[in-house]
Amino acid sequence: EAQVTQNPRYLITVTGKKLTVTCSQNMNHEYMSWYRQDPGLGLRQIYYSMNVEVTDKGDVPEGYKVSRKEKRNFPLILESPSPNQTSLYFCASSLNRGSYEQYFGPGTRLTVT
Amino acid sequence: AQSVAQPEDQVNVAEGNPLTVKCTYSVSGNPYLFWYVQYPNRGLQFLLKYITGDNLVKGSYGFEAEFNKSQTSFHLKKPSALVSDSALYFCAVRIVFGGSQGNLIFGKGTKLSVKP
Question: What is the mean pLDDT of residues B23-47?
């Protein structure tokens, strides 16, 4: 089954404790992206990757890092999480940047205390 | 600046009645327009798109949307709402400028509530 998976689905952590949210897709997509969803703000793009070893900042990249060492994986790294990073995070992928449809993962709800 | 606006935070409709979820955009260049739906505790799912051609586009689950260039709008519609249509709906735009395609820009979302 074609899908985007994220782990963990739920995470509660404390300020400053490094964490990684994994994202994996099995569709051989070139383009992958991370979004955060906050009430009243919709989805905002954090980082995106157009292919292996090619990443770029989205609209709200501060406090986040990403890597794309393999085509299927696109982890999101929070080196020193802060409470304002409490949010719902979505990973998405598409065949390429110009593809009409993006496929979204199920989301990761992160709480930073 | 490129932007997408969904002027209603929530839309309430009775089952069987027609529904409209509004979206307007402000972009330079040619827009590609999309609607996505998010059911509770799920990721976003693609509903439909407008790229070019007929201004009325049809998508999944009986939804359709009308592109209006003069009003810079792309409203989502359905002739007869179902309770199962209750969800969060996002309008999105991708800018196409000089042959280059940008990233998706999402609206803030509109919660659709369909009552029996």
Answer: 89
